[in-house]
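Hey, I was hoping to borrow your eyes for a little while. I've been staring at a protein lately and its backbone has me curious. You're getting the sequence in one-letter code plus the fold written as tokens. Would you mind checking whether the tokens look sensible for this chain? Here's the protein in full, and shout if anything looks odd to you:
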Amino acid sequence: MNKAAFPFIVPDLPRTSSWVPIYESAFETGVYSNFGPLSRELERKLAERYAVRGYGAVACSSATQGLLAALMERFEPGQAIAFSNFTFAATYQAIRMAGLVPVPIDIDGRTLEMSVDSLSQAINRTQIDGVMPVRPFGLVRDQSELVTFCQSKHLPLIFDAAASLGGAQLPLFGSDAGEVEVFSLHATKTFAIGEGGVIFAPLDRVEAIRKRLNFGFEADRTYFRGTNGKMDELHAALALAQLGRIDEMQAAREKHARRYDMFFSSVEDAQIPTNVTPGSGWTMYPVIFSKHSAPELIAKALEHGIEAKRYYWPTVSSGANDRIDQFVKLDVSERIARNIVCFPIYSLNTEHLVDGLFGELDRLFF
């Protein structure tokens, strides 16, 4: 059991009183999975809320399964996917599970997102068939430079945006470039239901991706490569209930993040997030330190009751045990992973936690 006074994650799922009445319809229809009525309703509402015109949503059992299905729908085994080296293991594992070749790419030291220069270098040195950038920590930023570059190279884009589903101020996901975005609804995320995910894709690809989540089955029971990645009706009911809370939850997290901005702007060696789109998921607050030792700071923070962590550490190139060919230097992502410390961000009804947390931070740093 986590005994820190200020734990790193405090999941905020909807109360049973809000989602059980929704789920009761499954007992009436007798449909509990396989893209049932609640799952379809969720897809429709998520697409209306978060996606541009011409895009649809596909609910799935997790973001990892969503990434896997999107990759299998677009690429053939053996093709090479450039991906951000600064990411959670699931990005890399989905590429491997799809039978594809992972090519790690370095990041921009300011945004912590995929470096277009690093990607360009990789393209000049090896075959690249697709690109999987990451939106780290749920922070949404303008990715138009990367999207335009990939369009010019005719490279399909699949965004691992696992933590980024947030509030009303977010720009709509999708563009005429046809990129796919995959989000997590895990308990650790802002839009939390326990386990789940959603894929936003152009309408002409939605059903093909859906088939990949259902073992690759065609109507005649022949099949392509696929997986079992369907969202069941129980989790769809949870997500429908959570959709009604998300704006208030995200606003609380945004307010918490603004307090971190003010606090860490006074810490001499702290690099804080900038140019973040309002409405971002804010699953945690990342700070890069140039003088403080990350492991020592995490240990000292725990003495003050604060559970802080290093994300995404180790990087894929350092953490994956199987061999990964590297075609570009990965110095920035390795440096960031060594020096970053992530602090907790809380959602609703946690004002007492937030006030106490900042009192301890003040004692820790000053």
Observations:
- The mean pLDDT is 96.
- The first strand starts at residue 55 and ends at 60.
- The longest helix spans residues 246-264.
